[in-house]
Please model this.
Amino acid sequence: MKTYHYPPFLLFYLVISTFSALGPDASNSLYNHLQLVYLWPSTFCLDRNMVCKKPVAQNFVLHGLWPADRAGNSLVYCSRTGSISRALTKYERQLAACWPSLSRHTTNRQFWQYQWDKHGTCVLPRMNVLHYLQLMISRQGKFNLLRALTSNNIKPNGSSYPRCIIEAAIRQEIGTRNLHMSCLNFRTRLFIKEVYMHLDVSGHKVVSCPISNKTRGCGRSVNLVFSAAASRV
Ligand SMILES: *[C@@H]1O[C@H](CO)[C@@H](O)[C@H](O)[C@H]1NC(C)=O
Ligand SMILES: *[C@@H]1O[C@H](CO)[C@@H](O)[C@H](O)[C@H]1NC(C)=O
Model:
């Protein structure tokens, strides 16, 4: 029979980390799942407080990868790690394509560092910054939300579509039952802003989002607008 022995130092580490995980300081870093959040740039840039770089991308981009607790609340600012500039250099080109800063006032690197400080640090010590960035790049490449929607005749042309049809199209793409969306209220119409899918702790498996009664700006609306480029006049 084959048995597996932990090296003594690892055992020591496990004991220590179990104890420290029970302490008040480390409780923030125990996440239950990861939220992979996509953003529809045309809606994000409708917001009056937002000045976007031009041209505005006509595809979903990542907003972030956010560790969350069992109830679906994201954990924030779990520890201080300083600059992740060296890790960013390694993946800069890929990150610029899938996770750009849309705001004209924020460079990509400022945005990535901010996201890491706020959300990314909550994956420690399960993942390090390189794993975190790799995971985002590899996960987002697996799904094509825009294709999933357009192939169901849901086009980003400023028309509104039944929310259940939108969700069904996305579920078909990500292969799970429950997802979340957020919306922006612009001139009394509700626009699709974000799509949240949930990943397991390792980030390798899509899981159902926790059932939640938060409306995330979408109200109880049965129709949502899929905004076209430059809807803001
Ligand atoms: C947007 O596309 C849908 C699906 O093809 C179509 O039914 C709708 O009329 C279009 N809306 C506009 C404003 O062109
Ligand atoms: C939403 O759920 C929470 C806890 O699950 C509950 O306390 C709250 O009353 C609910 N809110 C609404 C509007 O149903």
About this structure: The pocket of 2-acetamido-2-deoxy-beta-D-glucopyranose (ligand 2) is lined by residues 213 (CB under 6 Å). Confidence is low (pLDDT under 50) at residues 1-28. The helical segments are 8-22, 41-44, 85-98, 108-118, 129-140, 145-150, 163-174.
